[in-house]
Amino acid sequence: MSTLHDINSDIRANSSSDLTDYVHRYPLTFLATTTVAGFVLGGGLETRAGRIALTLTVRWALQVFGTRMISGESHGE
CA spacing 20 to 30 A to 74: which of 4, 25, 47, 56? Predict the structure, then answer.
């Protein structure tokens, strides 16, 4: 019978390995995601220039994503 501690440890181990695998497979996606999160949480949206920069970046990313979805590409594979 598994204890709650054992189950919690298994969940943490799997989550950690999943994240590590994702970072190794898609390093640029991970970098972009963490950069945007840091920008937003760091107060980058407080200025007009910050909001414009984020808006332009998101529009560009959505355009690239849409193009890749239409053409059938995925993560540059």
Answer: 56
| pLDDT tens track for 36-55 | 888 888 888 899 998 998 89
Helix (H, G, I), strand (E, B) or coil at 22: helix
The encoded tokens of residue 38 equal: 């840091």
Phi, psi of 39 (to 5 degrees): -65, -45
User: Hey, how many other C-beta atoms are within 10 angstroms of the C-beta on 75?
Assistant: 9
Extract the tokens encoding 7.
Answer: 């189950």
Where the chain has pLDDT below 50, the residues are 77
CA distances, 69 to each of 55, 62, 65 (Å) = 21, 10, 6
Contacts of 61 (CB under 8 A, 6+ apart): 32
Amino acid letter, 47 = T
The answer, as to whether pTM is greater than 0.70, is no
